[in-house]
Specification:
Low-confidence stretches: none
Largest sheet: 6 strands, antiparallel
Structural class: mainly beta
Strand content: 25-35%
Order of helices and strands: EEEEEE
Distance between the termini: 21 Å
Length: 82
């Protein structure tokens, strides 16, 4: 499962986070554990995306400002929001 950068704390579905500088969001899917928040089940599909990749690892963050952001790998821009 994905962890916050430079910590041992795991990122969990439902976590409030800040991404890409200071954009607030919520972790809605965890593809490593294959779980998601209620209402986001349609993201848990084994279908290719436009770029030919599968959503089979990493997390999906929902933000109000810039929409959905997918992170396949641990990223230093993902921080726990206080």
């Amino acid at each position: 499962a994905m962890k916050y950068f430079k910590t041992e704390k795991g990122i969990s579905v439902g976590d409030a986070v800040r991404v890409e500088g200071n954009v607030r969001g919520v972790v809605v899917c965890d593809f490593d554990r294959w779980i998601c928040m209620a209402g986001y089940d349609d993201w848990l599909v084994k279908e290719k995306m436009a770029d030919g990749e599968y959503l089979d690892r990493g997390i999906l963050v929902k933000t109000d400002e810039i929409g959905m952001i997918y992170y396949a790998e641990q990223d230093e821009t993902i921080e726990a929001a206080e």
